[in-house]
Specification:
Length: about 280
């Protein structure tokens, strides 16, 4: 985690978000979006590899996630994140970057494009939250009782988050990686923020854009871990089928956390996709 530091920030309507860049700013831009309940750290192996291939790679911690600000009453909904992403793209001065989005980052990227006019050169969706129904049984339970979960003793809360994050991986997470993903959600502010983002995960934010997927007019690839227990592989195939010309690429022996379970395979697939004419 010491080697993964987001040095820049932008003040938004949803508090300050942190972002960083890898590679030469003059190179072709690629933006990476993380999902829930993670942070930009999920890209700590993929991002440097993409930058080494001659790309300018931008990463950010979404509002209320990772090293970005966490505050009581903060709007961290998918609606708000889509608006923040559109703000970031304008702040970076990126007219048409390639975008790679994991988990609910997929919905954020889709909302920014379909509802807020953000333009992309290409879009890669990785085990994306984009179709109903949304959320695991635990996710739905916590969403309905967030005020109760917020009162858990700190050690019990940390153990719960560790188990939850671990369940997203098929290969298993190294202790240092698991700690880097869990640590932002600990302490009083982190614990409240963890249940806040779950409580605000409203399916209507995917329902609102799902009918628009057939209107997408750009190259799209859908990558999916074959062992994803959070969002079944069949959802990836369904999503690809709704988007004109989209390709479905299964990633063998990877769970929901494909960027950590199979970084080399995912990087290879992304480089091939980004290089297509």
């Amino acid at each position: 985690m010491a080697d993964w530091e987001l040095r820049e920030s932008l003040s938004t309507a949803s508090e300050t978000v942190r972002w960083g860049r890898l590679g030469d700013p003059r190179d072709e831009p690629v933006v990476l979006l993380h999902g829930t309940s993670f942070s930009s750290y999920v890209w700590h192996e993929v991002a440097p590899a993409l930058a080494a291939s001659g790309r300018s790679v931008l990463v950010w911690d979404m509002a209320g996630y990772g090293t970005s600000d966490m505050a009581p009453g903060q709007d961290v909904s998918l609606r708000a994140q889509g608006e923040v992403f559109a703000e970031l793209l304008a702040h970076w001065g990126l007219a048409e970057p390639s975008v790679v989005a994991h988990d609910f980052g997929g919905c954020v990227a889709l909302r920014a494009h379909l509802l807020h006019g953000a333009r992309y050169r290409r879009l890669a969706l990785v085990d994306a939250v984009a179709l109903a129904p949304c959320g695991s049984p635990f996710f739905r339970l916590a969403a309905g009782h967030s005020h109760v979960f917020e009162q858990l003793p700190g050690p019990l809360h940390r153990a719960l988050v560790q188990e939850y994050v671990t369940s997203a991986s098929h290969a298993g997470l190294r202790p240092a990686v698991l700690d880097a993903l869990v640590r932002p959600w600990t302490g009083a502010s982190g614990q409240s923020a963890f249940y806040r983002q779950i409580a605000q995960a409203d399916q209507r934010h995917t329902d609102e854009i799902q009918p628009l997927y057939p209107t997408l007019d750009l190259p799209v690839t859908v990558c999916w871990g074959t062992e994803d227990t959070w969002i079944p592989n069949s959802k990836g195939e369904e999503l690809a089928g709704l988007i004109p010309g989209a390709r479905f690429r299964p990633v063998p022996e990877a769970g929901h956390l494909v960027p950590l379970d199979a970084p080399a395979q995912l990087t290879s697939a992304l480089l091939a996709f980004l290089a297509e004419s």
